[in-house]
Structure formats: C-alpha cells, structure tokens
Amino acid sequence: MISVPQALDTVLNQTFVSAPETVSILEAAGYVLAEDVHSDIAMPPFDKSTMDGYALKASDVAAAPAILKVVGVIPAGAFPEFEICSGQAAKIMTGAPLPKGADTVQIVEKTAAAENGRVKILEPVAPGKNISPQSEIIGLNEKVLSRGTFISPAVIGVLAAVGKSEIKIHRRPRVAILVTGDELVEIQQKPQAGQIRNSNGYALYHQVRDCGALPQPLGVAPDQREALRTKIAEGLQRDVLLISGGVSMGDLDFVEEVFKQLDVNIFFDAVNIKPGKPTVFGKRETTLVFGLPGNPVSASTIFEIIVKPALRKMMGHAQVHNLRWQAIAANNFDSRTRRDNYAPACTYFNDDKIMTAILPSKGSSDILTFARSNSFAIVPGEVQKIKRGEPVEVVLRDEFWKSNSKTGRAA
Ligand code: AMP
Ligand code: MG
Questions:
Q1: Which residues surround ligand 2, an ion (CB under 5 A)?
Q2: What is the pLDDT of residue 405?
Q3: How far apart are CA 355 and CA 16, in angstroms?
Q4: Ligand 2 centre from 228 Cα, in Å?
Q5: CB under 8 Å to 49, separation ≥6 — which residues?
Q6: pLDDT reported for residue 404
Q7: Would you state the pLDDT for residue 402?
Q8: Over the range 253-275, which residues count as b (16 or more CB within 10 Å of their CB) and which as e?
Q9: Which parts of the chain have pLDDT scores under 70?
Q10: The pLDDT value given to residue 406
Q11: From the CA of 249, which ligand is nearest?
Q12: Rounded to two decimals, what is the model's pTM?
C-alpha cells in the first residue's frame, strides 16, 4: 500500500500535457495557453489623453488663470497633424492622441469658455498630467502572456488587444466514465430490493466537467467479466478512463482482472487513505486508467485528491496541485483509522483566522455530509484525536469559493 503523496507522484509522472490545438478567441476561455504571446503593437500606440479637456503647454498656465487660443478639436480616433504653440490649446477627448507641442492636459472641469475661440484655464497643471505615454501599458513586441496561463475573461481582453483572434491551447482530455455494479438502477427508477441508484456516474460527470475536462459516460456495466471487458476496451480509446466500483475484494470485483487482460499496466491498487483505499491506477499506451471505489464519498474523494491534479496537468495548468491551507480545528474529532483520513470539513474565515469544522460523517456512503462540506481536513494516520483549536491541514475544493457564505468579507 502506498501513501497519498507517493500515489500522486506516480500518477503525475505518468501524465503528460495534451498536444496543443488552435481555437478561436470565442472558445478560448477556460483553457490554458500553449504558447507565449507577444504584442504586435504598443499600448497605447501614441501619447494618449486620459481625460476630456484641453491639451496645452504646462508653462503657459503656470500662473493660471490664463487665456489660450483654441486651435483645434481632437476626438478619439482622429490623429492631429497640427502643433500646439505657446499661447494655444486644443480641445481633446478621452482616448485621443496628444498633439505635438502639448505636454499636458487640463481637465474640462477646470476650464471655462471664453470669447473668440478662446478658453480660460482656471488652474495650473503639471507637465505629463492626464496623459498615458506611448507604451505605458505594453511595449511593441513585448511578451505579454506565458504558456501555462489560465485563460480568464481578463486574459481574453489582453489577447484581443494584442491582435490574437486564434490561440494555441492545450485540449481538454476526454474522460470516459464507467460505473459498475449489478445493484445499480437509473435515476428514474425506484430501487427494488437489493438495488441502489447510480449516483456516482452523475457526480463524477460533473467533477470531470468542473475541472475543465470532457466527460464521456459509458453507462453502467454489470459485474460480469465479458461485459466489463467490452466497456473497458471502449474506455481505453479515450485519454482517461474512470471506473467506479468493482475494485475491492468481493467475489464479483473483476475490474483489476479485466485491466490485466487488456494489457493495462497497473502501478498501484491500494492507497493509505480513508476513504478510498482500494484505488487502482494503471496505464495502457497513453490512456490513464483509474479504478475508483464504488462508495460514493470514496469515489469523489479520490477524484479530487488523485485524479484532478492529473487532469490539470494534461490541460497544461502551471499549478496542478490542490490548494492546501493550514486551518484551526473548530471542534474535537476522533479519526478512528490508521490511514490518512481525508475527512469532509467545512472551512471558513473567522476574522483573520481560517477555521475548519470537521463534520461528523457516517462514512463513505454518507453523501449528504459530503455535499455539505467544502474541503477535506487531513488527519494523518498517526494522529487519532484532533482537539478544538489545534492546527489541521485542509484541502480546499471548488465549493469553498462557490458556496460558502462565510468565506470572507466583501472586497
Ligand atoms: P464496490 O466498490 O463495487 O464494492 O461498491 C461499494 C459500495 O458502493 C456498494 O455499496 C455499492 O452499492 C456502492 N456503489 C457502487 N457503485 C455505485 C454508484 N455508481 N452509485 C452509487 N453507489 C455505488
Ligand atoms: Mg460493486
């Protein structure tokens, strides 16, 4: 049995970043850049007025109020060919290029109209005021974005500004999801004696999708070697195959046996973690294969802790690991296992402290407690009891950011 960090290392060592693909800027958000991006222009491309006002020479208004002759009007989008001489000003709009000869802009609020095409400048203004100099934001040919950058809407704005309508990204891995078990029935059915509904297929579908990969459900396979072989062979055609169930020690747990028949190279089949000990990881050619335990909380936990970092690596993320924080236990907790316990927890801010309430869970089928959690509290195998106020390491899930009302103050 290997430790969680060893399992994660093994998986990440076998995981490679997906080949680049080109997508349109309208499709690009949510991917990771597979290229460095340089700017084909300077930004701003000229000395630009950042306010509506009058372009002028600062020395002309040092003893303001002063009257200047208005020699032109410069709207945004125009390019002034004339030059400002001493005693002159040009009316200028936000975003318009500064005319030659002017070295500052006085805002319109500090001016007043005067007779005969003149303007009264009410206050002095320092040279360079209300001007964004050429290249202030981005220089010509400057590298503006690096490979590995997550493409947020703000990054899309930069890509558009520097002229990239098509972008090289790392493609999303296609993740086959196969659930196994003779006891499983679909959502629409009322389970009869001995049956349960297939919940893992749906939870895993969304876990895959939430981290940016493409879920491809393969349906439910019964606990029979032949049927499993057909489905698993189909799943091996994808980038990743996730299987739930059939990996424990039961008489009908055939998944690992079928992996071997299909030449899947097995790297480990047990991890020192609770929940989720009977986790299988293998590879055939370039396909990563994960056999997850059938218990729903185990399957989802192993996905978060071991599968998700691999998917992030495939998608080119610079940061593949889950966020881990040091928190303070908000309650006492009995671990009741010698394995590293990844217990469902609710992590939150209390003033400047990060607190975590380790939830009392009824175990690896307690989907309700799991759904109320937003993180895992890690209680190492050698620790049996956590006391309120003691430090605990937590792994944050997306739920921490998305659904916890106590996570912070308004910005
Ligand atoms: P297994 O790992 O196949 O021994 O399954 C362990 C437990 O998880 C059993 O109680 C199964 O009924 C349950 N289980 C297996 N697959 C699913 C599933 N797709 N959805 C919900 N529970 C499941
Ligand atoms: Mg089963």
A1: 181, 245-246, 294
A2: 53
A3: 36
A4: 12
A5: 55, 74, 92, 93, 94, 95, 96, 97, 98, 105, 130, 131
A6: 57
A7: 87
A8: bbbbebbeebebeebebebbbbb
A9: 404-411
A10: 59
A11: 1
A12: 0.92
